[in-house]
């Protein structure tokens, strides 16, 4: 038998060619997997965005309905008010201003109730909104 000898350089070139084909195939598979993952992620983001848009639309409708209801209540209050009565102002009553000042200096709920004549709920609200803990945390 006569064997054909293949030079080592040809074997090396054949090995490199085979390796290149393998690497190319692996790169193509990786790229395809990346593309599919990107498509799934895009679809998920689109679905999530549509859900958020629907929620925002519903909130906008509810806000508009609430604004309309408040406007109607204001009109009813204005019609029910005696003709000589002074209009309601947006400024807090002097008792609330004192309570706010006391809350900013660290007054407790009970102190606000006894000093300013506030109810339990009012004193708690003033203390939470204007108390020392709110201003120490850096809330604006």
Please characterize this protein's 3D structure:
The chain has 140 residues and is mainly alpha-helical. The chain is built from 5 helices and no strands. Helix 2 crosses helix 4. The protein is elongated.
Attribute tags:
77% helix, single chain, 140 residues, mainly alpha
List the helices and strands and how they pair.
Layout: H1 8-80, H2 94-104, H3 109-116, H4 120-130, H5 132-136
String of helices and strands:
HHHHH
- Give the overall pLDDT as a whole number: 86
The assigned structural class equals mainly alpha
Task: State the helical fraction.
Answer: over 70%
For the secondary structure, the number of strands is: 0
How large is the count of helical segments? 5
Overall 3D shape? elongated
Q: Into which percentage range does the β-strand content fall?
A: under 5%
Q: How many angstroms separate the termini?
A: 95 Å
Let me know the largest β-sheet: none
Whole-angstrom Rg: 37 Å
Uncertain runs: none
Short synopsis of the structure:
With 140 residues, this protein is mainly α. It is elongated, with a radius of gyration of 37 Å. It is 77% helix and 0% strand.
């Amino acid at each position: 038998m006569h064997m054909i000898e293949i030079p080592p350089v040809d074997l090396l070139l054949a090995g490199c060619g085979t390796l290149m084909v393998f690497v190319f195939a692996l790169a193509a598979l990786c790229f395809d997997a990346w593309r599919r993952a990107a498509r799934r992620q895009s679809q998920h983001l689109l679905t999530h965005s549509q859900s958020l848009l629907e929620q925002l639309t519903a909130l906008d409708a509810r806000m508009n309905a609430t604004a309309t209801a408040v406007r109607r209540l204001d009109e009813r209050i204005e019609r029910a008010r005696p003709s000589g009565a002074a209009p309601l102002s947006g400024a807090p009553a002097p008792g609330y201003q004192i309570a706010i000042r006391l809350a900013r200096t660290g007054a407790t709920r009970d102190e606000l109730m006894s000093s300013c004549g506030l109810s339990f709920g009012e004193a708690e609200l003033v203390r939470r909104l204007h108390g020392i803990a709110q201003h120490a945390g850096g809330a604006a």
